[in-house]
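Note to self: user wants both folds in one dump. Writing first protein now.
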Amino acid sequence: MYDEKNSDKSLERVPSQNGDVVEGAHDAVFGEITGEGPNYRNVGWLGTAVLMMKTQIGLGVLSIPVAFDALGVVPGVICLIVIAGITTWSDFIVGSFKLRHREVYGIDDVGYLLCGVPGRIVLGTAFCLWWIFVAGSGMLGISIGLNAVSDHATCTAVYVAIAFIVSFVLGSIQTLGRISWIAWLGLFCILTSSMFPSALSFTWLSVAVAEPQSNPRHLVLIVTVAVGIQDRPAAAPKDTVWVPDYKIANNPSFTDAISAICTLVFAYAGTPAFFSLASEMREPRHFNRSLIICQSVVTGFYLAIGVVIYYYCGSYVSSPALGSGGPVVKKVSYGFALPGLLASTLLFIHITGKYLFVRILQGSRHLSSNTMTHWVVWIGCTFGVGLISYIIASAIPVFSDLVSLVGALLGTPMCFQPMGGMWLYDNWSRSKRSLTWYLMVAWCVFVIVAGTFLMIGGTYGSVMLIIKSYQESGGSAAWSCADNSTS
């Protein structure tokens, strides 16, 4: 736990609550905070909560119904709640560790404390690759949305390039405080787009329960009057009466099950970004306040959206899920979702670029001053991150496969194992070892072992699914012009 009396005092003098810079304030990460440069310490606890939610609600929520299809709705909900609990604990450890070790800016600093230089290299590399891949997934999601709303008006490769350019430009805004308003807008849009088809599905289900003998065509009249959509998922057969084929519990293969679980991990894998968010808070001691709001809202929406969309669509749920409600709903949903997907992608580029930027300039005056070196390095970092993400998005243009692979290979080691190590690092030498201490040691060992299992098993499962997808359909070609919004 955090001991305020014995904590490092290097962050006591912080920017005032209205955002004004306190001349001479010193930050353990950014150095001297002056009026000559950006005010990095200018994010309030509510803004932090929104940024936390935006690092999580975005791409992952769109694949939760597909994960439920693989597992069945009851096992899917149980797995989702378990992962929510573990990652919430991991996030709490991030906040308390940051207060104990003010100089920590990224998970590579944790690696250095735990394992020295090799730990810094491994976790630092994994951090960069993780967010670069996630940003690539975001660009791919944006291209799907643009194809959906435009009826594939141009080559998909062009849409991916547009996603890269816009995300790079907005992601190059200097501080999280200045882009928090984009996170507010993006969060509203992605939730609206996700809940839109869910709300329509819930209307259909409500009528079905109230009038179980009603002709489904009468049910669709109600929905049509309200929104003008069909009474079945877009991919469902059109020549039969539609009955949702959801499964209470499924019997998936190991490959399908582990890939679905890693998809759920992906939905909660904003944890490594929380170090950066805590570093730019006006008052890091309010971190847990932001965390509680974030995890409560995220879990509630994930459960509502995942269960309702899967109940309605069954095995015909699309990936991303916004394509499941038919052509009209698909366009409206993606129209709302695009700002949300853009906000997520630019945030991923910003966080990764900021990490590289701080590592390159840390300890020099250029970090917190608007010099030519400051701007060249900053723009170079965000452009480089965006460019690599663009290449990944173009080279692996299969949304669900990319999400599961990234979630397995990089998401679990960013959200599970290091946090178990962090608690042990701070508490192993405790002189008084109570029953609680032994239980926490057992819990940390479980988290580390579970994370390692998911990383190895999930990576294997995802690779097998990608190979299977390409064997069955040939997959999608790199830099393809084909419409990727029809899956």
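First done. Writing the second protein, which came from a different request thread.
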Amino acid sequence: MSNWNSGPYPADPNQAYYAGQPGYPPQQGGYPPPQGGFPPQGGYPPQQGGYPGPAPGFQPPPYASNDPYSAGEHVPFSSSPAGNYGGAAYPEDPEVKGFDFSDASIRRGFIRKVYAILSCQLAITVAFICWFLYHLPTKRYVQSHPALFFVSLAMVIIALICLACCGEVRRKAPMNFIFLFIFTLAESFMLAAAASTYDAQAVVMAAGITAAVCFGLTLFAFQTKWDFTVMGGILFVAVLILFIFGIVAIIVKNQIVQMIYASLGALIFSVYLVYDTQLMMGGQHKYSISPEEYIFAAINLYVDIINIFMYILAIIGHARD
């Protein structure tokens, strides 16, 4: 019986062949290292700029959403709302909202800011009215120096022009608050000086009626489905007619004319209050004010309220005479 190790194959492949075996040269130093073979894999090459774009002639499928990419025009592949995968545009994620004025959270914050500023303005105005109305030395001094009224009028006009016509002044803090404070002080002085010429009971009654009217009109503006923002041109014409009527009322010293003028003024500025409130609300209305224009929105509401107060005070004052 032959030994199993006597065949042509060695017992240990890792060892060299036995010397003297015919036909098989001895191995030189064991098996040689692998020649060639697969190169070492260093991982996938890094991606340059995300996934590659579509091949030439690729036509993206029609988009299903109502976004700017569904208009049928070709858009860059990397800017597609579906990402870089070439699919249809995904619907908007309800968890991710854009900073648009239609967003309910931004609108609520804007409205809160406007009403906070308006509350400060009205508080300053009420303080001036109470001071001029119940402090007799101040009341006599203001009534004996009418030049102060015209100085305040000039300050109101200058501050209002700067806030209305200069967007950089109106939108940048603290410059916008400085001009708003100057405007509020000058307007409060004028309103208090005018109110000091009436009886204190008439002023208090006019203030109460104004508060009730403004509260009711604000609730109406928030709840109604009528869009008053489209009435800007009509209201401008109405104010222009009211201005001409006011000049006539100054020339014609008639109590009936004065009552009609005051009634028309209260009516027009009541509609203006609804108009400006809906401009501030935005939403489903045709026109709206940008969230950056909180100073302008507060001035609009403030001017509407004080005009309603002055016209109601004129009605009550003429009725008591």
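Dump finished. Worth passing along: The chain has nine helices and no strands.
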